[in-house]
Amino acid sequence: MIPYPFEYHRAASLADAEMKLKASPDAKLLAGGQTLIAAMKMRLAQPSDLIDISALKDLSFIRVDRNTVVIGAGTRHFEVANSADITRAIPALGQLAESIGDPAVRHVGTLGGSLANNDPAADYPAAVLALDAVIKTRRRSIAAGEFFTGMFSTALEPDEIITEVSFPVPERAGYAKFPNPASRYAMAGVFVAKSSSGVRVAITGAGPCVFRSPEMEAALARRFTPEAIANIAIDPADLNSDIHGSAEYRASLVTAVAKQAVAAAQ
Amino acid sequence: MIMTAVDMIRRVPKLDRAKIRAELEGNICRCTGYHNIVSSVEDAAKKMAGAST
Known about the structure:
Number of strands of chain A: 14
Structural class of chain A: alpha+beta
Helix content of chain A: 25-40%
Largest sheet of chain A: 5 strands, antiparallel
Structural class of chain B: mainly alpha
Radius of gyration of chain B: 11 Å
Oligomer: heterodimer
Helix content of chain B: 55-70%
Order of helices and strands of chain B: HHH
Shape of chain A: globular
Strand content of chain B: under 5%
Strand content of chain A: 15-25%
Strand order of the largest sheet of chain A: 4-5-10-6-7
Number of strands of chain B: 0
Order of helices and strands of chain A: EHEHEEEHHHHHHEEHEEEEEEEHH
Number of helices of chain B: 3
């Protein structure tokens, strides 16, 4: 399918990209384009301008120390999945990256792109919210809890660009999902993380936006086992219902997948 | 398909059939079964491993 006409610009730097974003209100940033280009081809998105930041090398890096994993916004899923340092520090994060899309998607799609787009079925938002990561832009740091504001919506200003994401290293973490058998998008994905400050459980794919389950968190803080949450049901009232599954079906998937995530946590 | 196969053989040390299928994902072939493609990659991995030692 053919997208609506648009102007293509290659950004020379982050400052240049910001300036170009300011200049045209209907412009979009192009990083990996794995969601944006598809949406444009389906004519679901109609940006006037695409500002390509995929060649900005300073957005692509992985830094790991004892307490934090910092990943540049332009880092590809493939690089996260194959980083020995990430696999050592937060294995669940590498496994999550390895589970996104297919190899072609993973070689192009970026962390920052996934977060800025905030697709309800995206994987990364679950890791960011459960690990209590900090999203950095050129002007501020945004806590994960404040970043995801709704379906395809975030706390980012229209001309604000994510530069990096800082993930605190947890004691243990696990990710599991039930992918739609056709599209492979998560029908329910659950990231659990246990750290000295407690347990966080973030759920993606099931609702319009990633969310936490305080009930599961409290139960897992008492006992970090799959059985501890086996009888906790998510209220289907807030979940998605579509041709792929009813809200009740998704609610039951969430509990099943959450148990898998706890069992897989390392 | 061939580029994906070469990449996975070079990158993944222990390729089993499940891993080969996961790595081939996203490549659409009208053979529908992918059975012989998986077998070919498996075979090539063995031969290429032999060739490099």
